[in-house]
Each structure stands twice: as structure tokens, then as C-alpha cells.
Amino acid sequence: MGTLLVKMFWSFVRISPMTFGGGYAMIPLLEREFVEKRQWITREEMSSGLAVAGSAPGGIGVNAAAFIGYRMKGVPGAAAAILGITLPTFFIVLVLGLAFAQVQHHPKAAAALAGIQAGVAALILVSAYNMGRSSLVDRGTMITAAAALVLLLLGVHPIGLIAAGLLLGHAAVLFRVKREGGRLLRQEASAAAAAPSYKYADYYIADGI
């Protein structure tokens, strides 16, 4: 257990300094490290974790790190992940804050920041594409995503969209159970029998939303 915690901590330490532009720019790096390279979690688990991380208060990068750490090693894993993701950026921001006051009006510094912002936009688009591949699985999810995008562009607060999504998702499940009845319950029972068992707390933290 200790070895895995150390590996996880250093993985987040390496990722943290490369995430210019905030937590959303970190998502492709998290996917590459933990889904593709180390295969510690699946792409579906990552998408679920990002949905929870984006809905919860706080930065999505730290929330996603806590989710990954908890899924792997419970509370100690979450603590190791949060420390790994926050410590490097704390010291980097401290140094940059002192230096930026001296160079903020320099043309080369302004040009560098403009280039970084363009790169961050590309990283966010890649993250949206990867999430869409595993989250937009049928007509209902596609319509929901399109409607949410339109409402965001119209200025609706994200909290309102999250609350509406929870209510609509719950209503859709109830409608499906009522319409399909026993067949759906048998399918879910078969899937549950084949799936790995989780602790009670895992359901709410990782899979419940």
C-alpha cells in the first residue's frame, strides 16, 4: 500500500507544474497518466469522477485528484493525491507572483501569456471531446448536453443546470423502470453480479451521482 501511495503522490507532483490555465487543462494529463499509462482506473471511472469533481465545490483539478486517490486507496490515497497536486503549484505561484510584478508590462511576457492561453484552450477542447466519448451514449444524453450548452451561453448559472440535471436524470430513471419493468431490473441485477463490489461510502463518492 505504501509503495502505491508514493507512486501516486509523485505522479501528481509531476502533473501539477504542467497544468497552466487551471484544473480543466489538467484533465488530459490525468487521463494519460492514470487511464492510458498506468491503467489504475478506467476511462468510464474517469468520466464519472470528472462529473462529480465539476459539480462539487472547489477546483476541478483538486477534486479530480481526490476522487482518483480515494478510488485507489481510500482516504490515505485521497490525501496523497491532494498533497501531490497542490504542493508544487503553491510554490510555483508564490515565485511567479513575485516575478510577475517585475515583468507584467514587458512585451515578451505578454506574448508568452497569450500563447499559454491558446494552448490551454486546446487542452480544454480535448478534455471535452474525451468526456463526450464516454458520456454521450444515447439520444437523451446528447439532447441534455446540447440544452445545457445553450443555457450556459444564455447566462444560466451552472448550479441551476446541475440541479436540473439531477432532477431530470432521476425522473428519466423512474420513467424507464416504469416502462420496462422486470426486464430492466433483471439486466441491472446481472450487471451488478458481474461488477466489482464497492464499500458503502464508495457509492456516494464515486458512483452515486
UniProtKB/TrEMBL annotation:
InterPro entries (alphabetical): CHR_Transporter, Chromate_transpt
Localization per Swiss-Prot or TrEMBL: Cell membrane
Record key words, sorted: Cell membrane, Membrane, Transmembrane, Transmembrane helix
Principal location listed in the UniProt entry: membrane
Spans traversing the lipid bilayer: 50-70, 77-103, 109-129
GO molecular function, one term: chromate transmembrane transporter activity
Record family assignment: Belongs to the chromate ion transporter (CHR) (TC 2.A.51) family.
Membrane topology: Multi-pass membrane protein
Name of the protein: Chromate transporter
GO cellular component labels: plasma membrane
Source domain of life: Bacteria
Keyword Transmembrane listed: yes
